[in-house]
Here is the input.
Amino acid sequence: MRWLAIVALLLLVCGGALTLGGYAGFEWWRVNGAPEVPVVAATPATPGSPEAVMVAEAPAAAASCEEGAAAFGAKDYERATTLLDVCLEHAPEREDLRMLRGRSWAASGRYERAVTDLSRALDVRPEDAAGWEALVYSQVKSENDRAALGTLERWLDKQPDAAVALRLRADVRYRLGELGLAVDDASRACALGDADACLLETRMKDARRRR
Here is the structure.
């Protein structure tokens, strides 16, 4: 019987130790909290990857927009088109700069490209008179007076009292053989204060009298 008492005593001691150990473990968890999850730093973009290229090119693209506009202002049209190509590749929504690129194409004799850029930009920015004029100029220089006339009609729908548009339409109509309508346009433009239209009106009236 004595050995049974000894065994029972040992079981009580071991059980108490196990219980105390479990409690101590819980208390450590409660006091210290759950183990921290290691924070994994973001992996840098692999050099040459599309993500790395985009990050690297963003400042250059922004600079090309500013420098392209400055080159246009300085009438360096070749440089302007080169820089604005880069700009619009990364910011195709910048229709104001597409307009400048179109005007640069027109000024440097690239009329087909000018027509493409200006037609698109003017759909978004129809108030830009310089853009309309450059588009008409490009179409006339491409010997497409009919297209130029259509452009002038759209321009005048947006800006009925645009004296420059009336003068240009007078010129186009004269070449298309619409002499009476051409004189009317020149007269209206002259009345709106366009001095060149007044000269054009006089010349067309002289031409009509000689016929």
Summary: The longest helix spans residues 2-32.
